Amino acid sequence: MRRVPTDQNEPDEEPSDARKGRRKGLAYQGASEAVFAIPVATGIGYWLDGRFGTSPYLLILGAALGFAAFVTRLLRLGKQLQALGDGDD
């Protein structure tokens, strides 16, 4: 959310320290989401295998979906960090 400047002479960009903090927070959040995607999806596949007796098909499907979510989240994270980094210099 952009902040509304109270002084007309004040620059509209946020300070460099705030931008760095935002990038770090976003990086930690995205990395943890990406890392937890694989075990959660694999666990759901394991549970469904036990429930329906389809071992190991749903486990493998869950692992594949978790890995796809992992890669997708990392790609989105890279784009977000790149967009925040464009204002540096």
How would you sum up this structure, described in words?
The protein is mainly α and 89 residues long. It has one domain. Helix content is 74%, strand content 0%. It is built from two helices and no strands. The chain starts with 15 loop residues before the first helix and ends with a helix. The model has no long low-confidence stretch (mean pLDDT 86).
List the helices and strands and how they pair.
Blueprint: H1 16-52, H2 57-85
Number of strands: 0
Low-pLDDT stretches are none
- How helical, in percent, are the residues? over 70%
Average pLDDT metric: 86
Query: What is the N-to-C order of secondary-structure elements (H for helix, E for strand)?
Result: HH
**Counting H and I runs of at least 4 residues, what is the number of helices?**
2
Sheet-strand content, in percent, reads: under 5%
Count of structural domains: 1
By secondary-structure content and strand pairing, the structural class works out as mainly alpha
Report, as a whole number of angstroms, the end-to-end distance: 22 Å
What is the C-alpha radius of gyration, as a whole number of Å?
Answer: 20 Å
- Name the overall outline: rod-shaped
Main beta sheet: strand number and arrangement? none
